[in-house]
């Protein structure tokens, strides 16, 4: 099926498609984002012009292509270079130590993506608060399947030649109308569902944050009851292209960084102090550690428990 709008371009710096855009996927079963059998990244999104399906492809090492379908297709094609990190500038990044320098050398195509979709990033981030990731992904998948809408376009090619349609996540109005029992059915406790409903009712104000400075954007997000430093950072990493958005408050991150770089457990405050030399690129450092395969803390400590909120 021929795309309604397309664009091919050569980015101004090396760009690895999957290293850059893969963080948008909320688990392997995310109905809004899939990797096709053709190797392309397929995404369903909601723009000011309407819903759209977008296909990002790495045509060559130095060439990218976007195809899009639906009312929001033209908008998605216009913004594609920004989504895939065109504005990311690692020029001032100083690796400082050999481990990070080698990871940076081996992964020159890592870019910080920028979707400029605040609510799109915020809702799944809230779902991931204080629960294990698999549980949050299950909730996201369940809610999008139940309350989202089928994305336009041909569907994602899967093995065997079939195509599977994507789903577009609910609009702010649709999120606000999800009944309390449906949140419960999806395993979402009242605190997180209340935070989401409060947030989507302020969607226009939140979307303004994509044009703000990082500090002002974080302040706008954190003004919401139930949105703290961790959640604001998770949004900034995806919606704002913020290379410095360190997810302070993450259940594992401080110990991961502590063991990866200094061989010991760390508190959040100690991590923030220790990461100060990389100010401006702290999220980039965390991504590079992951791409380098650094294990971090040995897996001997307690794990966050699974809490089935449907049984409460």
From TrEMBL:
GO molecular function annotations of the record: alkylated DNA binding; DNA-3-methyladenine glycosylase activity; DNA-7-methylguanine glycosylase activity
Positions with biased composition (Low complexity): 151-160
A GO biological-process term: DNA alkylation repair
UniProt KW keywords: DNA damage, DNA repair
Region (Disordered): 151-171
UniProt superkingdom: Bacteria
GO CC, one annotated term: cytoplasm
Protein name as annotated: 3-methyladenine DNA glycosylase/8-oxoguanine DNA glycosylase
């Amino acid at each position: 099926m021929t795309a309604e709008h397309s664009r091919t371009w050569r980015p101004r710096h090396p760009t690895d498609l999957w290293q850059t855009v893969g963080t948008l996927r909320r688990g392997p079963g995310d109905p809004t984002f899939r990797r096709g059998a053709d190797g392309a990244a397929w995404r369903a999104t909601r723009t000011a012009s309407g819903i759209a399906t977008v296909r990002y492809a790495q045509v060559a090492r130095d060439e990218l292509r976007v195809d899009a379908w639906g009312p929001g297709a033209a908008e998605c094609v216009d913004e594609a270079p920004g989504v895939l990190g065109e504005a990311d500038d690692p020029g001032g990044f100083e690796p400082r130590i050999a481990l990070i320098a080698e990871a940076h050398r081996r992964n020159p195509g890592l870019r910080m993506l920028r979707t400029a979709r605040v609510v799109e990033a915020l809702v799944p981030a809230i779902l991931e608060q204080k629960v294990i990731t698999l549980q949050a992904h299950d909730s996201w998948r369940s809610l999008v399947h139940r309350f989202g809408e089928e994305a336009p376009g041909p569907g994602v090619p899967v093995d065997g030649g079939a195509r599977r349609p994507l789903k577009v996540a609910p609009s702010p109005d649709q999120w606000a109308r999800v009944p309390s029992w449906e949140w419960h059915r999806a395993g979402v406790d009242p605190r997180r569902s209340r935070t989401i409903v409060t947030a989507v009712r302020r969607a226009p104000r939140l979307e303004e944050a994509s044009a703000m400075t990082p500090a002002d954007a974080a302040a706008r997000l954190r003004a919401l009851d139930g949105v703290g430093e961790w959640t604001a950072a998770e949004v900034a990493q995806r919606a704002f292209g913020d290379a410095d958005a360190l997810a302070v408050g993450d259940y594992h991150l401080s110990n991961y960084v502590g063991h990866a770089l200094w061989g010991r457990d760390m508190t959040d405050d100690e991590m923030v102090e220790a990461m100060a030399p990389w100010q401006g690129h702290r999220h980039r450092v965390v991504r590079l550690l992951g791409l380098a395969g650094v294990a971090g803390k040995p897996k001997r400590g307690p794990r966050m428990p699974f809490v089935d909120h449907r049984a409460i």
